[in-house]
User: Fold Prefoldin subunit 4 from Hexamita inflata.
Amino acid sequence: MSLLPENTPIVEVTKDDQYQIAAFSRNHMKYENLVFQLNSIVKYMDELESASIGLMDCDDSAMLQIGTGFIEGDSTDLDTIVGTRVEYYEGQKAKLEAEIDQTKKILDKLRVVLVGKFGNAINLSYEKK
Assistant:
């Protein structure tokens, strides 16, 4: 009984192949971590946007929850704080997106080399469908 798909030729795995497979694995873990961080930032930015909309509806003073604590203040001051946080996270989001693109390029290059040698005997998908 073979674990390989039918009609898959057996190919010798060299030390260089092992290094490339390990590099793919490391970069895949990095990619997954970066995507998780990006999704967390996007979610937090959505929450900040909702807070900003809520602050616009307030007349004078309001309370803003940050973490487990609350800040009380003028709604326009709190909206400024929220705006500053949004700007910060937009910068972080852009950095993460650039790093994700760079990591994708590395994964794609490694995939071309490894699929060229091993065909479908090796699973090199990294994006979830």
The chain has one domain: 15-112.
